[in-house]
Amino acid sequence: MNYIIGAFKPPCDIFVTFSDERSRKQVAVKKDNGKTTMVPAFQSLETIAGEVSIAPVPGKRIEHMGVKIELLGQIELYFDRGNFYDFTSLVRELDVPGEIYERKTYPFEFSTVEMPYESYNGTNVRLRYILKVTIGRNYVGNIVESRDFCVRNYSPLPSINNSIKMEVGIEDCLHIEFEYSKSK
User: Fold this and answer.
1) What are phi and psi of 26, to 5 degrees?
2) What is the enclosing helix (H) or strand (E) of 5?
3) CB 3.0 to 4.6 Å from 94: which of 14, 67, 75, 126, for a disulfide?
4) For the chain, how many structural domains are there in total?
5) pTM score
């Protein structure tokens, strides 16, 4: 019976770790299943580096047509589930076609990545950044593992921030004046 259960498990475990994960600020992100997880936060034009570790099930080997990692920026509309609009896509080849017999670790680096938008998770739309590792295989399905991360772009406060006055009303009858302390 255990043989049948094991037939549907992937033949390996894939782990994606960032090089400065322990010292980097963590942000809470809500997943599809409703649970909250902590993911590392990055800024635009930062270098994203780390390691991908592939560990086959003991006694098994993985034949593959190459291993690649992708950095993707995606927008997903909730009424159109499953269709993503990719606005950022960078790919690095980690390994040429071959076989993996034992645990193998591949370093990766995406230097000065432009991430123009901040991560967002709303009621109708989700904007997210992910690292997606794909082990390409011939006759059976590809093995895919993804890891989310968050992007927060900070900008300095504007130097000139004058107040705004606005007047609304009907002549000789009603007059309302609004004043906002900041224009930005």
Assistant:
1) -110, 145
2) helix 2-6
3) 67
4) 1
5) 0.78
